[in-house]
Amino acid sequence: MEFIEAKNKYIQTWGALGSQWGINKTMAQIHALLMISTEPMSIEEIMDELQISRGNASMNIRALIDWGIVFKESKSGERKEFFTAEKDLDKLAITIAKERSKREIKPALRILQEVSNIEINNSKNQKQFKEQTEKLYDFVLKTDNIIEKMTQYKENWLSKLIVKIIK
Amino acid sequence: MEFIEAKNKYIQTWGALGSQWGINKTMAQIHALLMISTEPMSIEEIMDELQISRGNASMNIRALIDWGIVFKESKSGERKEFFTAEKDLDKLAITIAKERSKREIKPALRILQEVSNIEINNSKNQKQFKEQTEKLYDFVLKTDNIIEKMTQYKENWLSKLIVKIIK
DNA sequence: TTAAAGTTTCAGAAATAATTGAAACTTTAT
DNA sequence: ATAAAGTTTCAATTATTTCTGAAACTTTAA
Predict the structure, then answer these.
(1) Together in a domain, A22 and A75
(2) Is B114 touching A (CB cutoff 8 A)?
(3) Which pLDDT does position B165 carry in this prediction?
(4) If you count residue pairs, one on A and one on B, with CB atoms under 8 Å apart, how many are there?
(5) A12: exposed, middle or buried (Cβ count in 10 Å: 0-12, 13-18, 19+)
(6) How far apart are alpha carbons A62 and A65 in whole angstroms?
(7) Residues in chain B within 8 Å Cβ distance of A1
(8) Which domain holds residue B23?
(9) pLDDT per position as a tens digit, B54-75
(10) A53 Cβ neighbours under 8 A, 6+ residues apart
(11) Which among A43, A62, A85 is the end of a domain?
(12) How many domains does chain B have?
């Protein structure tokens, strides 16, 4: 396989995986591209490599910066802005996990708590509802707590986790 | 809050969370509905509760069955088919994790391995490509291994995991 | 101050994904 | 054997998400 072919395959794969997990394709592809770039890239270079429009590139770069996994960089002497990606995968995963917790899990938790706290009569249906939503709340809360704990390790948490699980 | 209102809110929330994580909204909603149902439900009841078409209900129920988190049930005396959901959240999470590993992570791994194994010249770019895709492969593989390990606990793995992480 | 270069925004277009509904198919009971 | 009831399928429609590209805005340097 050619380098170019491998590179394209890698970017496509990462983009597809992104969409399957709720991250938009272009966003994932831009990140993938920056991950394997040795130098910070300009918006033009990104547009060119991925064959996407300026608007699309700009919006998704901004989103990646909001997520905290891509950084602006100013090359001295150049007026243009350049971008680099977080390349440390442990850090990357933690940042994504934290953000998704904040944006998606925490709001869902709030609602689960709210609905599981309703006053019920003693009908079978309402009892079951309360019981299941309480369980769901507990479960999601535990999951979120795990994410929080992971976050504290920072260095090599994945390897540490494996060791802990195995023993 | 009314029971009906709480129920709708719960179903909407679960559906939204589903879409954010790559599971289609209706699929997540049907599962949410079955989770709080005390009795197996027929396709008509599901259509009626969620206000969706027969085709949509049927396709998504079938998908849930394929995933292994909803089961067909035949009530004795009734010809119609009824459906129940896996209500144990530990089992549910494990089943979903296993399926997603099989459907999405494993194929991605194959490609990462493939592209990280290309012959490279000694240009900076190609070296960086190989290095990063190898790291990515290792990382995704480790993640997948964790999922596999989890799977083996079955009972109360989430609680067990928390204990292990904390100490 | 101004105009060229660089950057961002956003309404409309395009692509993708989900849903409908009616037709085809299957099962059951007579 | 047949027709009513139940179930599944899938082409066409609808909804949602993403992307484009041109216009507006900002920065820089002469």
Answers:
(1) yes
(2) yes
(3) 80
(4) 142
(5) middle
(6) 5
(7) 114-115, 118
(8) 3-85
(9) 999 999 999 999 999 999 987 7
(10) A47
(11) A85
(12) 2
